[in-house]
Amino acid sequence: MSWSRREFVRSVGWGGTGMLSLPFIISRGREELSARGIEGQTPPLIEPGFIRISGNENPRGPGDAALRALDGRVSFKVGRYPDNPPGLAETIAGLYRARADNVLLSTGSAGLLAGAVRAFTSPERPLVNASPSYGAPVGTARRIGTPIREVPVLPDLSIDLNGMAEAAQGAGLVFLCNPNNPTSTFHSGLSVAAFIDEVRRSSPETMIQVDEAYIDYSEDPIGGTAVPFALDDPNVFVTRTFSKAYGMAGLRLGYAIGRPETMQKIEAAWGLGSVNVLTAAAAIASLNDPAHMERERQENARVREFVHSTFKGLGIDAPLSNTNFLFVSLDRPVGDFRDACLEHRVQVGRNFPPMLDHCRVSLGTMGEMRRASGVFAEVLRTG
Ligand SMILES: Cc1ncc(COP(=O)(O)O)c(C=O)c1O
Protein backbone atom coordinates (compact mmCIF):
# COMPACT_ATOMS: atom_id res chain seq x y z
CA MET A 1 0.00 0.00 0.00
CA SER A 2 1.52 3.33 -0.96
CA TRP A 3 0.57 6.48 0.88
CA SER A 4 -0.69 9.60 -0.81
CA ARG A 5 1.09 12.87 0.01
CA ARG A 6 -1.96 13.99 1.88
CA GLU A 7 -1.90 10.89 4.11
CA PHE A 8 1.82 11.33 4.65
CA VAL A 9 1.46 14.96 5.61
CA ARG A 10 -1.38 14.04 7.92
CA SER A 11 0.64 11.24 9.51
CA VAL A 12 3.56 13.48 10.41
CA GLY A 13 1.32 16.31 11.38
CA TRP A 14 2.76 18.95 9.06
CA GLY A 15 0.75 21.85 7.81
CA GLY A 16 -1.71 24.12 9.54
CA THR A 17 -2.15 23.26 13.18
CA GLY A 18 -0.51 19.87 12.90
CA MET A 19 2.88 20.77 14.41
CA LEU A 20 3.96 18.20 16.96
CA SER A 21 6.23 18.49 19.95
CA LEU A 22 9.74 16.98 19.95
CA PRO A 23 9.03 14.32 22.61
CA PHE A 24 5.91 13.31 20.67
CA ILE A 25 7.81 12.79 17.42
CA ILE A 26 10.66 10.93 19.13
CA SER A 27 8.37 8.58 20.99
CA ARG A 28 6.24 7.54 18.02
CA GLY A 29 7.70 4.71 16.01
CA ARG A 30 6.58 2.12 13.56
CA GLU A 31 4.92 -0.59 15.59
CA GLU A 32 1.75 -0.42 13.53
CA LEU A 33 3.56 0.10 10.27
CA SER A 34 5.34 -3.21 10.81
CA ALA A 35 1.91 -4.84 10.95
CA ARG A 36 0.71 -3.44 7.63
CA GLY A 37 -1.07 -6.00 5.53
CA ILE A 38 -2.80 -7.55 8.54
CA GLU A 39 -6.55 -7.44 8.24
CA GLY A 40 -8.10 -4.84 10.51
CA GLN A 41 -5.07 -2.59 10.33
CA THR A 42 -5.69 1.09 9.69
CA PRO A 43 -2.89 3.50 8.83
CA PRO A 44 -1.70 5.34 11.93
CA LEU A 45 -3.27 8.75 12.35
CA ILE A 46 -1.53 11.65 13.95
CA GLU A 47 -3.85 14.56 13.73
CA PRO A 48 -4.87 17.21 16.21
CA GLY A 49 -7.97 16.05 18.01
CA PHE A 50 -7.33 12.37 17.39
CA ILE A 51 -6.28 10.10 20.22
CA ARG A 52 -3.96 7.48 18.83
CA ILE A 53 -3.83 4.50 21.18
CA SER A 54 -3.43 1.88 18.49
CA GLY A 55 0.35 1.43 18.79
CA ASN A 56 2.32 0.58 21.93
CA GLU A 57 4.18 3.85 22.10
CA ASN A 58 5.12 6.12 24.93
CA PRO A 59 3.06 9.30 24.79
CA ARG A 60 5.41 11.10 27.18
CA GLY A 61 8.54 10.49 25.11
CA PRO A 62 12.00 10.33 26.67
CA GLY A 63 13.03 12.06 29.88
CA ASP A 64 14.56 15.51 30.16
CA ALA A 65 18.11 14.14 30.40
CA ALA A 66 17.70 12.43 27.01
CA LEU A 67 16.23 15.55 25.43
CA ARG A 68 19.07 17.67 26.77
CA ALA A 69 21.61 15.17 25.41
CA LEU A 70 19.99 15.42 21.99
CA ASP A 71 20.10 19.19 22.07
CA GLY A 72 23.76 19.13 23.01
CA ARG A 73 24.66 16.87 20.10
CA VAL A 74 23.01 18.73 17.25
CA SER A 75 26.04 20.37 15.70
CA PHE A 76 28.23 20.19 12.58
CA LYS A 77 29.70 17.01 14.10
CA VAL A 78 26.72 15.00 12.92
CA GLY A 79 28.40 15.21 9.51
CA ARG A 80 30.70 12.41 10.65
CA TYR A 81 29.81 8.72 10.48
CA PRO A 82 29.04 7.30 13.92
CA ASP A 83 31.48 4.36 13.84
CA ASN A 84 29.87 2.41 16.66
CA PRO A 85 28.91 5.12 19.14
CA PRO A 86 31.49 4.96 21.89
CA GLY A 87 30.10 4.12 25.27
CA LEU A 88 26.63 2.85 24.39
CA ALA A 89 27.29 -0.91 24.37
CA GLU A 90 29.48 -0.47 27.45
CA THR A 91 26.77 1.48 29.30
CA ILE A 92 24.16 -1.17 28.48
CA ALA A 93 26.55 -3.97 29.47
CA GLY A 94 27.21 -2.16 32.76
CA LEU A 95 23.55 -2.58 33.72
CA TYR A 96 24.05 -6.33 33.81
CA ARG A 97 27.69 -6.53 34.86
CA ALA A 98 28.39 -7.82 31.38
CA ARG A 99 30.91 -6.82 28.70
CA ALA A 100 30.41 -4.82 25.54
CA ASP A 101 30.76 -7.95 23.39
CA ASN A 102 27.71 -9.40 25.15
CA VAL A 103 25.64 -6.59 23.59
CA LEU A 104 24.51 -6.33 19.98
CA LEU A 105 23.06 -2.95 19.00
CA SER A 106 20.44 -2.44 16.31
CA THR A 107 18.39 0.41 14.89
CA GLY A 108 15.30 -0.83 16.74
CA SER A 109 14.97 -4.39 18.02
CA ALA A 110 12.93 -5.38 14.94
CA GLY A 111 16.17 -6.09 13.04
CA LEU A 112 17.35 -8.38 15.83
CA LEU A 113 14.10 -10.32 15.69
CA ALA A 114 14.49 -10.78 11.94
CA GLY A 115 18.17 -11.68 12.32
CA ALA A 116 17.41 -14.31 14.97
CA VAL A 117 14.85 -16.10 12.79
CA ARG A 118 17.26 -16.01 9.86
CA ALA A 119 20.19 -17.22 11.98
CA PHE A 120 18.52 -20.04 13.85
CA THR A 121 15.62 -21.42 11.81
CA SER A 122 15.37 -23.11 8.40
CA PRO A 123 12.87 -25.27 6.49
CA GLU A 124 14.00 -28.14 8.76
CA ARG A 125 14.16 -26.13 12.02
CA PRO A 126 10.79 -24.52 12.85
CA LEU A 127 10.01 -21.34 14.76
CA VAL A 128 7.84 -21.60 17.89
CA ASN A 129 5.72 -18.64 18.97
CA ALA A 130 2.69 -18.14 21.19
CA SER A 131 -0.60 -17.12 19.59
CA PRO A 132 -1.42 -14.32 19.78
CA SER A 133 2.00 -12.86 20.37
CA TYR A 134 4.30 -10.38 18.68
CA GLY A 135 4.03 -11.33 15.04
CA ALA A 136 7.28 -10.07 13.50
CA PRO A 137 9.23 -13.35 13.89
CA VAL A 138 6.38 -15.25 12.24
CA GLY A 139 6.47 -12.74 9.36
CA THR A 140 10.20 -13.37 8.84
CA ALA A 141 9.73 -17.14 9.08
CA ARG A 142 7.08 -17.02 6.34
CA ARG A 143 9.37 -14.98 4.14
CA ILE A 144 12.19 -17.54 4.32
CA GLY A 145 10.09 -20.72 4.27
CA THR A 146 10.54 -21.69 7.93
CA PRO A 147 7.68 -23.81 9.33
CA ILE A 148 5.85 -22.16 12.24
CA ARG A 149 4.45 -23.82 15.35
CA GLU A 150 1.99 -21.51 17.09
CA VAL A 151 0.90 -22.36 20.63
CA PRO A 152 -2.42 -20.81 21.72
CA VAL A 153 -2.39 -18.78 24.93
CA LEU A 154 -4.20 -20.25 27.95
CA PRO A 155 -7.75 -19.21 28.91
CA ASP A 156 -6.32 -16.56 31.28
CA LEU A 157 -4.42 -15.22 28.21
CA SER A 158 -0.99 -16.10 29.64
CA ILE A 159 1.53 -17.93 27.46
CA ASP A 160 1.30 -21.72 27.71
CA LEU A 161 4.89 -22.40 28.76
CA ASN A 162 4.40 -26.18 28.91
CA GLY A 163 2.88 -26.14 25.43
CA MET A 164 5.75 -23.96 24.16
CA ALA A 165 8.35 -26.33 25.66
CA GLU A 166 6.64 -29.31 24.00
CA ALA A 167 6.47 -27.51 20.66
CA ALA A 168 10.17 -26.60 20.99
CA GLN A 169 11.33 -30.18 20.41
CA GLY A 170 13.44 -30.10 17.27
CA ALA A 171 12.70 -26.42 16.66
CA GLY A 172 15.37 -23.92 15.63
CA LEU A 173 14.10 -21.03 17.75
CA VAL A 174 11.49 -20.40 20.45
CA PHE A 175 10.32 -16.79 20.69
CA LEU A 176 9.06 -16.04 24.19
CA CYS A 177 7.61 -12.56 24.51
CA ASN A 178 7.67 -11.67 28.20
CA PRO A 179 5.57 -9.62 28.90
CA ASN A 180 3.52 -10.74 25.94
CA ASN A 181 2.26 -8.38 23.25
CA PRO A 182 -0.75 -8.22 22.81
CA THR A 183 -2.08 -10.10 25.87
CA SER A 184 -0.03 -8.03 28.40
CA THR A 185 0.63 -11.02 30.67
CA PHE A 186 3.95 -11.70 32.42
CA HIS A 187 5.78 -14.78 33.65
CA SER A 188 7.97 -14.51 36.74
CA GLY A 189 11.72 -15.09 36.65
CA LEU A 190 11.17 -18.50 38.26
CA SER A 191 8.70 -19.65 35.60
CA VAL A 192 10.98 -18.46 32.80
CA ALA A 193 13.92 -20.27 34.44
CA ALA A 194 11.91 -23.49 34.61
CA PHE A 195 10.86 -23.06 30.97
CA ILE A 196 14.46 -22.56 29.84
CA ASP A 197 15.57 -25.60 31.85
CA GLU A 198 12.89 -27.75 30.29
CA VAL A 199 13.69 -26.71 26.70
CA ARG A 200 17.42 -27.13 27.28
CA ARG A 201 16.76 -30.64 28.63
CA SER A 202 14.28 -31.84 26.02
CA SER A 203 15.69 -30.08 22.92
CA PRO A 204 19.31 -29.06 23.59
CA GLU A 205 19.90 -27.62 20.10
CA THR A 206 16.95 -25.21 20.21
CA MET A 207 17.68 -21.49 20.67
CA ILE A 208 15.54 -19.56 23.14
CA GLN A 209 14.86 -15.85 22.61
CA VAL A 210 13.20 -13.94 25.42
CA ASP A 211 11.87 -10.63 24.11
CA GLU A 212 11.63 -8.18 27.02
CA ALA A 213 10.41 -5.11 25.12
CA TYR A 214 7.93 -4.24 27.90
CA ILE A 215 9.68 -5.59 30.99
CA ASP A 216 10.34 -2.13 32.45
CA TYR A 217 6.56 -1.81 32.86
CA SER A 218 6.22 -5.23 34.53
CA GLU A 219 5.85 -5.99 38.21
CA ASP A 220 9.44 -7.33 38.36
CA PRO A 221 11.81 -5.79 35.80
CA ILE A 222 14.90 -6.98 37.65
CA GLY A 223 13.94 -10.38 39.08
CA GLY A 224 11.91 -11.24 35.97
CA THR A 225 14.61 -10.82 33.37
CA ALA A 226 16.24 -13.75 31.58
CA VAL A 227 19.49 -11.82 31.03
CA PRO A 228 21.49 -13.88 33.61
CA PHE A 229 20.63 -17.05 31.64
CA ALA A 230 21.59 -15.36 28.37
CA LEU A 231 25.02 -14.38 29.74
CA ASP A 232 25.63 -17.94 30.79
CA ASP A 233 24.22 -20.06 28.00
CA PRO A 234 24.90 -19.66 24.25
CA ASN A 235 21.44 -21.05 23.44
CA VAL A 236 19.60 -18.26 25.25
CA PHE A 237 19.48 -14.55 24.40
CA VAL A 238 17.34 -11.57 25.33
CA THR A 239 16.15 -8.69 23.16
CA ARG A 240 15.20 -5.26 24.47
CA THR A 241 14.17 -1.94 22.99
CA PHE A 242 14.28 1.77 23.79
CA SER A 243 10.92 2.18 22.03
CA LYS A 244 8.69 1.57 25.05
CA ALA A 245 9.49 2.77 28.57
CA TYR A 246 12.45 4.82 27.30
CA GLY A 247 10.10 6.67 24.94
CA MET A 248 12.44 6.61 21.95
CA ALA A 249 10.52 4.65 19.28
CA GLY A 250 11.18 7.35 16.71
CA LEU A 251 14.93 7.30 17.41
CA ARG A 252 15.19 3.53 16.70
CA LEU A 253 17.35 1.63 19.14
CA GLY A 254 17.25 -1.93 20.40
CA TYR A 255 19.76 -4.48 21.56
CA ALA A 256 20.30 -8.17 22.08
CA ILE A 257 22.27 -9.48 25.01
CA GLY A 258 23.86 -12.87 25.39
CA ARG A 259 27.07 -14.78 24.75
CA PRO A 260 29.41 -13.12 22.22
CA GLU A 261 29.24 -16.16 19.90
CA THR A 262 25.43 -15.92 19.85
CA MET A 263 25.53 -12.19 19.14
CA GLN A 264 27.91 -12.83 16.24
CA LYS A 265 25.52 -15.34 14.67
CA ILE A 266 22.62 -12.86 14.74
CA GLU A 267 24.82 -10.07 13.40
CA ALA A 268 26.03 -12.27 10.53
CA ALA A 269 22.45 -13.12 9.53
CA TRP A 270 20.92 -9.69 8.98
CA GLY A 271 21.83 -6.02 8.57
CA LEU A 272 21.18 -4.24 11.85
CA GLY A 273 21.95 -0.69 10.71
CA SER A 274 24.29 1.65 12.54
CA VAL A 275 23.00 3.53 15.53
CA ASN A 276 23.19 7.27 15.00
CA VAL A 277 25.06 9.63 17.31
CA LEU A 278 21.94 11.45 18.52
CA THR A 279 20.18 8.23 19.47
CA ALA A 280 23.27 6.95 21.25
CA ALA A 281 23.62 10.17 23.26
CA ALA A 282 19.94 10.10 24.26
CA ALA A 283 20.13 6.43 25.23
CA ILE A 284 23.21 6.87 27.42
CA ALA A 285 21.62 9.86 29.14
CA SER A 286 18.45 7.82 29.76
CA LEU A 287 20.36 4.89 31.20
CA ASN A 288 22.17 7.26 33.54
CA ASP A 289 18.85 8.63 34.80
CA PRO A 290 17.17 5.73 36.63
CA ALA A 291 14.97 8.16 38.59
CA HIS A 292 13.23 9.10 35.37
CA MET A 293 12.52 5.44 34.60
CA GLU A 294 10.97 5.03 38.03
CA ARG A 295 8.70 8.05 37.42
CA GLU A 296 7.79 6.67 34.01
CA ARG A 297 6.87 3.30 35.50
CA GLN A 298 4.72 4.96 38.13
CA GLU A 299 2.91 7.19 35.67
CA ASN A 300 2.25 4.28 33.35
CA ALA A 301 0.90 2.26 36.28
CA ARG A 302 -1.36 5.15 37.32
CA VAL A 303 -2.85 5.49 33.83
CA ARG A 304 -3.12 1.71 33.47
CA GLU A 305 -5.00 1.40 36.75
CA PHE A 306 -7.41 4.14 35.68
CA VAL A 307 -8.16 2.50 32.32
CA HIS A 308 -8.44 -0.96 33.85
CA SER A 309 -10.96 0.19 36.41
CA THR A 310 -12.89 2.12 33.76
CA PHE A 311 -13.31 -1.05 31.71
CA LYS A 312 -14.11 -3.04 34.84
CA GLY A 313 -16.85 -0.55 35.65
CA LEU A 314 -18.25 -1.13 32.17
CA GLY A 315 -18.30 -4.89 32.75
CA ILE A 316 -15.30 -5.46 30.45
CA ASP A 317 -12.55 -7.79 31.54
CA ALA A 318 -8.80 -7.61 30.88
CA PRO A 319 -5.86 -9.47 32.39
CA LEU A 320 -3.73 -7.53 34.85
CA SER A 321 -1.39 -5.72 32.50
CA ASN A 322 2.40 -5.77 32.87
CA THR A 323 2.83 -3.44 29.91
CA ASN A 324 1.69 -0.08 28.53
CA PHE A 325 -1.48 -1.52 26.99
CA LEU A 326 -4.55 -3.56 27.95
CA PHE A 327 -6.06 -6.48 26.05
CA VAL A 328 -9.77 -6.18 26.74
CA SER A 329 -12.37 -8.84 26.16
CA LEU A 330 -15.29 -7.34 24.25
CA ASP A 331 -18.76 -8.77 23.78
CA ARG A 332 -18.62 -7.97 20.07
CA PRO A 333 -16.28 -8.12 17.07
CA VAL A 334 -13.28 -5.87 17.57
CA GLY A 335 -13.80 -4.29 14.14
CA ASP A 336 -17.20 -2.89 15.20
CA PHE A 337 -15.73 -1.47 18.41
CA ARG A 338 -12.75 0.03 16.59
CA ASP A 339 -14.93 1.67 13.92
CA ALA A 340 -17.28 3.12 16.53
CA CYS A 341 -14.35 4.54 18.53
CA LEU A 342 -12.84 5.99 15.36
CA GLU A 343 -16.04 7.92 14.75
CA HIS A 344 -15.31 9.62 18.07
CA ARG A 345 -11.71 10.26 16.98
CA VAL A 346 -10.17 7.54 19.13
CA GLN A 347 -8.03 4.98 17.31
CA VAL A 348 -7.61 1.65 19.14
CA GLY A 349 -5.55 -1.41 18.18
CA ARG A 350 -5.76 -3.57 15.09
CA ASN A 351 -7.01 -7.16 14.86
CA PHE A 352 -5.08 -9.84 16.71
CA PRO A 353 -6.25 -13.08 15.16
CA PRO A 354 -7.52 -15.48 16.33
CA MET A 355 -8.86 -13.32 19.21
CA LEU A 356 -11.19 -11.13 17.20
CA ASP A 357 -13.42 -10.33 20.18
CA HIS A 358 -10.52 -8.71 22.03
CA CYS A 359 -9.14 -5.24 21.58
CA ARG A 360 -5.67 -3.97 22.39
CA VAL A 361 -5.86 -0.51 23.90
CA SER A 362 -2.48 1.20 24.25
CA LEU A 363 -2.07 3.75 27.01
CA GLY A 364 -1.87 7.41 26.09
CA THR A 365 -1.48 10.22 28.59
CA MET A 366 -3.89 10.45 31.52
CA GLY A 367 -5.70 13.28 29.73
CA GLU A 368 -6.06 11.23 26.54
CA MET A 369 -7.27 8.19 28.46
CA ARG A 370 -9.88 10.18 30.38
CA ARG A 371 -11.33 11.34 27.07
CA ALA A 372 -10.98 7.90 25.49
CA SER A 373 -12.71 6.31 28.48
CA GLY A 374 -15.74 8.53 27.92
CA VAL A 375 -15.79 7.29 24.33
CA PHE A 376 -15.48 3.63 25.41
CA ALA A 377 -18.40 4.08 27.80
CA GLU A 378 -20.57 5.63 25.12
CA VAL A 379 -19.67 3.09 22.43
CA LEU A 380 -20.20 0.12 24.74
CA ARG A 381 -23.46 1.52 26.14
CA THR A 382 -24.98 2.18 22.73
CA GLY A 383 -23.92 -1.23 21.39
C1 LIG B 1 7.26 -7.41 21.80
C2 LIG B 1 7.94 -6.49 20.85
N1 LIG B 1 9.20 -6.76 20.48
C3 LIG B 1 9.86 -5.95 19.62
C4 LIG B 1 9.25 -4.83 19.10
C5 LIG B 1 10.04 -3.99 18.11
O1 LIG B 1 10.28 -2.75 18.62
P1 LIG B 1 11.42 -1.79 18.02
O2 LIG B 1 11.77 -2.27 16.65
O3 LIG B 1 10.79 -0.45 18.03
O4 LIG B 1 12.58 -1.90 18.96
C6 LIG B 1 7.94 -4.50 19.47
C7 LIG B 1 7.27 -3.31 18.92
O5 LIG B 1 6.17 -3.00 19.19
C8 LIG B 1 7.27 -5.37 20.36
O6 LIG B 1 6.00 -5.13 20.74
Q: Gist?
A:
It contains 14 helices and eleven strands.
Summarize the helices and strands and which ones pair or pack.
Elements: H1 5-12, H2 22-27, E1 51-52, H3 64-73, H4 88-95, E2 103-106, H5 110-120, E3 127-131, H6 136-144, E4 148-152, H7 161-167, E5 173-177, H8 189-202, E6 207-211, H9 227-232, E7 236-241, E8 254-257, H10 260-269, H11 277-287, H12 290-313, E9 325-329, H13 334-343, E10 346-347, E11 358-362, H14 366-382
Parallel strand pairs: 1-10, 3-4, 3-5, 5-6, 6-7
Antiparallel strand pairs: 2-8, 7-8, 9-11
Pyridoxal-5'-phosphate is lined by residues 29, 31, 56, 108-110, 134, 177, 181, 211, 213, 241, 243, 249, 254.
Q: Helix count, per DSSP?
A: 14
The set of bound ligands, ions and cofactors reads: pyridoxal-5'-phosphate
Overall mean confidence score, pLDDT: 90
User: Do you know the CATH architecture of the largest domain?
Assistant: 3-Layer(aba) Sandwich
Q: How is the CATH topology of the largest domain named?
A: Aspartate Aminotransferase, domain 2
The CATH class of the largest domain is: Alpha Beta
Tally of structural domains: 2
Helical percent range? 25-40%
Structural class: alpha/beta
Order of strands across the widest beta sheet?
Answer: 2-8-7-6-5-3-4
Shape: globular
Strand runs, count: 11
Q: Please report the distance between the alpha carbons of the first and last residues.
A: 32 Å
Largest sheet: 7 strands, mixed
Alpha carbon gyration radius:
20 Å
The H-level CATH homologous superfamily of the largest domain, spelled out, is Type I PLP-dependent aspartate aminotransferase-like (Major domain)
